[in-house]
Amino acid sequence: QVQLVESGGGLVQGGGSLRVLCTASGPNFRDYAMAWFRQIPGKEREFVSAINGGRGQYTDYADSVKGRFTIARDNAQNMLSLQMNDVNLGDTAIYYCAAGITPTRVGSAYDYWGQGTQVTVSL
Fold it and tell me: What is the pLDDT of residues 91-120, one digit of tens each?
């Protein structure tokens, strides 16, 4: 079984930068496709970014974050990251990492989820 733990969230000013992390416990991290989703309480979960298993040569981004966010993985440390640049108020949410078979935008396709980390953007 895979366990995922997010960290790095916090308060950041609009236009600033923040990096959130996801640490995985368990075997075969290299084989999993990974993704970031975010959710505002009371609203539906939203796809942010995904990366394929292995070397992570394939990446996918939601239009709302494309050009501002960068997803990356470090298989030697069992870690996934999301570098968030030029943040705005719309980026305020709980950010979740997920692991699955393929780097899809559909949340229900992922098999494992972290507990989330709060990112709050101030004006």
Answer: 999 999 999 999 999 999 999 999 999 999
Which backbone phi and psi does 56 adopt, to 5 degrees?
A: 75, 35
Residue 71 to residues 34, 42, 43, 54, 118, Cα–Cα distance (Å)? 9, 26, 23, 14, 17
Question: Cα(42)–Cα(78) distance, rounded to whole angstroms?
Answer: 31
* Token pair in block for residue 19: 């990096």
Helix, coil or strand: residue 21: strand
Q: Helix, strand, coil proportions of the chain in percent (round to 5)? A: 10, 50, 40
Cβ partners under 8 Å of residue 110, min gap 6: 35, 98, 99, 100, 104
- In single-letter form, the type of residue at position 22 comes to C
